[in-house]
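Researcher: Structure prediction, please.
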Amino acid sequence: QVQPVESGGGSVQAGGSLRLSCQASSYIDNSFCMGWFRQAAGKEREEVATRGGDGKTTYRDSVKGRFTISKDNVKRILYLSMDNLKPEDTGMYYCAAAEFESCPRKIPEYNFWGQGAQVTVAA
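Model: Predicted structure follows.
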């Protein structure tokens, strides 16, 4: 399995929490940038949070203070902890990796993509 594999999606009420996990294969070096992206129905895919190979993290403004990206390099798992979820957080969440330590500015520059995990937040 070359592509990463997501798990942990589900349905919650607004204000609830979920944690997504992304298992990276041995093809995805620990020095690679990894990130979480999401796509709502009828909308373009957008970056949610990234973690560079040096550990530097970034977040989109709408999730700052609510979401946390982290990585266990021994287990090769990328996490996205999501608290105080809102209906506008609903979408398919994808894990991706890029063959660079610094995270790319453009989504198409990510080389490895998972199949996605659905997150649904009810009002």
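Model: Residues 98 and 109 are 7 Å apart (CA to CA).
Researcher: Thanks, that helps.
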